[in-house]
Design goal:
Elements lengths: L4 E7 L5 E3 L4 E3 L4 E11 L2 H8 L6 E5 L11 E4 L2 E9 L6 E6 L8
Antiparallel strand pairs: 1-4, 1-6, 2-3, 4-5, 5-8, 6-7, 7-8
């Protein structure tokens, strides 16, 4: 298994807040952890088992051995945002099933 896909784990800042004087949301600096992983599309059989139907834009992320998953709110792959659906840790490798979300956090 080759880990050639760059992914970014993003943890949003707890310093984000609404500024009533400006009338807008102020984002704090998010923490980004970049790593290489193996990213593949979720197969149809597995999609039916996990979601009950075939989902588009669902992926499987497999990390390198002994990689320690950071705390994260979402994952970015090729400029798209994904949320974790399922996680496993077989043989010291993390395996995540993720699904793409829209910019507002809604699952596609």
């Amino acid at each position: 298994m080759r880990c050639t896909d760059e992914i970014i784990f993003v943890k949003e800042s707890s310093e984000s807040h609404y500024d009533p004087n400006l009338g807008e949301w102020i984002d704090g600096e998010s923490k980004r952890t970049i790593t290489l992983a193996n990213v593949t599309d979720l197969g149809t059989d597995r999609s039916v088992k996990v979601f009950g139907d075939i989902r588009q834009e669902a992926k499987v992320i497999r990390t390198m051995p002994l990689f320690s998953l950071p705390e994260f709110d979402h994952i970015e792959i090729d400029g798209k945002t994904f949320k974790e659906t399922t996680a496993r840790n077989p043989s010291g490798r993390h395996s995540l099933i993720v699904q793409e979300v829209a910019s507002g956090g809604q699952v596609i």
